[in-house]
Amino acid sequence: MESEAAIVIEDLTVAYDVKPVLWDIDLEIQAGTLTAVIGPNGAGKSTLIKLILQLIKKDCGEITFFEGHSDTIEKEIGATIEEPCFYEYLTGEENLKLYKNILGLHTKDIHDAMEMTGIIFAKDKKVSQYSMGMKQRLAISRAILSNPKLLLLDEPTNGLDPKAIIDLRELIKQLNHMGTTIIFCSHHLSEVKNICSSFGFLYDGVITKRENMNDSDSQIAEMEELFL
């Protein structure tokens, strides 16, 4: 039995000031998979994430979630964006409580989410005192609060030290093993290789290549070649 598609994107196009940023994007991602979207700066990765989240309007095309079977999709998608934003004068815990109340969530406990991402030690600190890496951990805590079916991670390793990157890698794998579909946007090709089962290469607003991960040691070099 085929798994359902977590997301189907058809003929997706968006332009800023007439110039196309994404052009006729077609992409289908099956539920339960862990897929990377890679590409150079300015390729449109963050724009694609924002379109999926309906933070910006598309010019044309269709995005369908879980084959149209979900009517509470705003609670079933978790996401981090490249530069996470919080209320700096509130503590980490207060920020998550506010988010939980706004969405009316009755799922994962805030402390559980902060424990999973290793930021529980700073729950009572104001976010203005957080480093970039701490904000990334808090952003991931916020993203998983709803136990999302689909998780979008846009450059989640930004600002993280090597230990935190290893912890994040294990968390992503854990969430995926629990059934969460994950789209992972990153410049860190070694992490893409370590974490993901497939990748799509986005260049100049178009997905030019899709490929499954394999056991070849040369695959990172092959991905690097796409950027040249």
Proportion of residues in helical segments: 25-40%
SS class:
alpha/beta
Strand content: 25-35%
Mean pLDDT over the residues: 90
How far apart lie the N and C ends? 40 Å
Order of helices and strands: EEEHEHEHHHEHEHEEH
Describe the global form: globular
Strand adjacency order, main sheet = 5-6-7-3-8-9
Number of helices, counting only DSSP H or I runs of 4 residues or more: 8
Give the low-pLDDT segments. Answer: none
Rg over CA atoms, rounded to whole Å, is 17 Å
Overview of the molecule:
With 228 residues, the protein is of the alpha/beta class. Helix content is 33%, strand content 27%. The strands form 2 sheets. A 6-stranded mixed sheet has the order 5-6-7-3-8-9, with helices on both faces. The longest helix is centred in the last third of the chain and has 16 residues, at 162-177.
Helix/strand layout:
Blueprint (H helix, E strand, L loop, with lengths): L4 E12 L2 E12 L3 E5 L6 H8 L7 E6 L7 H4 E4 L11 H12 L6 H7 L15 H13 L5 E5 L7 H16 L3 E5 L3 H7 L2 E6 L2 E7 L6 H8 L2
Parallel strand pairs: 3-7, 3-8, 5-6, 6-7
Antiparallel strand pairs: 1-2, 1-4, 8-9
Helix pairs in contact: 4-5
Characteristics:
8 helices, globular, 228 residues, alpha/beta, six-stranded mixed β-sheet
Give the structure's gist in a few sentences.
With 228 residues, this protein is an alpha/beta fold. It has helices at 45-52, 73-76, 92-103, 110-116, 132-144, 162-177, 189-195, 219-226; strands spanning 5-16, 19-30, 34-38, 60-65, 77-80, 150-154, 181-185, 198-203, 206-212.
